[in-house]
Amino acid sequence: MKNFKMPGLAWQIFIGMLLGIITGWIFRENPHLSTVLTPIGDIFLRLIKMIIIPIVVTSIVVAIANSGDAKALGKLGGKTLLYFEIITTLAIIIGILSANIFQPGAGIDFSQLTQNDITKYVKTATSQEQMSLMDTIVHIVPTNPFAAIANGDMLAIIFFSVVFGLGLSAAKESGKPVINILKGSADTMFIITHQIMRLAPIGVFALIGMTVANYGLASLIPLGKLVLVIYGTMFFFVFVILGSVAKIFNYRIMDLIKLLKDEIILAFSTASSEAVMPRLMSKVESIGVPKHISSFVIPTGYSFNLDGSTLYQAIAAIFITQMYGIDFPIIEQISLVLVLMITSKGIAGVPGVSIVVLVTTLGVKGLPVEGIAYIVGIDRILDMGRTAVNVIGNGLAAIIIAKWQGEFKKNTA
């Protein structure tokens, strides 16, 4: 026993996934399983969500206050948003091309499908449709930063944190005590994150167990082609599209995947990108991304750079037109790209965002929203994949922006 070595976090999470799959399958008809596993999974996710906003606020404020150059910050913000728009547009185009090539919705037998309730998504999408693009931009500026923090309004939180950081920088000596307190708070939150991550295998076990018990494998059979097309397209996007972008900036996508293997597995198994945000920031900083860039790019990317989600939305929209046998010519598909470019940004951060964006997009295009009811049942399975892609995309974004800024300092230690 003296030579026993505890496996790394990635292996612990993987073992938790396997045990969760086995437990969920064996006890799938046991009504008491939910009573046991659901609270465990929920507590783990709530612990993660508990630390996200304190980390985002303190990290951004300290990073901006220490950099202190509003002009440089504007340049960083401009490059970041431009990069996000290019990459997410590519994701939409790749998704539409894939759906047209592989036709996942062709020949679907409706009798084999189960309809699910999508009322809550339609209600959320309807409320969001009432906000124009300019309303969304105005909403980024909070009237009450504490209300934004309480509501988890990430874009408003980022805006306030940037402004507060610039204010502390301008305050010079009188602002240093506040910066020191916030820096200490940020360091403390990262230590808490490390402690919470020790519970990740248990949380993953519970979440995967409930997923398998609730949906099983039978739900995948009628829509198996859709699942295969989405996952296949995600692999293509990561290794070909993001891999090519990384190569342009003299970086290897496989190096990033090796670096983030723990975070990718955790994001996949929990279907929560929030679960890995603090560690994602720490990991990219460990290889040379400056803190002020990781602190700005990654939280912003959680609203503007959801590559996996936008890719899924494009495929799902075309899938529904194919399922209903609707003629959807190329000019309409180009229009769909433009609609998704707006809707995927305008309602970022709301619960069930991918389904809500899809409801909004189909509504704008006059396509049957009720088609979503047939794929909601497998959304958790799809959500796991797109969450992992979102994490890879945002990790790469921080590295690319750092290199583009000429501030990437490769760690040779």
Automatic annotation (TrEMBL):
Annotated keywords: Cell membrane, Membrane, Symport, Transmembrane, Transmembrane helix, Transport
Main subcellular location: membrane
InterPro entries: Na-dicarboxylate_symporter, Na-dicarboxylate_symporter_CS, Na:dicarbo_symporter_sf
Pfam families, sorted: SDF
Entry keyword annotation includes Membrane: yes
Domain of life: Bacteria
Subcellular location: Cell membrane
Topology of the protein relative to the lipid bilayer: Multi-pass membrane protein
Transmembrane segments: 9-27, 47-68, 80-102, 154-171, 199-221, 227-249
PANTHER family registered for this protein in UniProt: PROTON/GLUTAMATE-ASPARTATE SYMPORTER (PTHR42865), PROTON_GLUTAMATE-ASPARTATE SYMPORTER (PTHR42865:SF7)
UniProt-recorded name of the protein: Cation:dicarboxylate symporter family transporter
Protein's organism: Thorsellia kenyensis
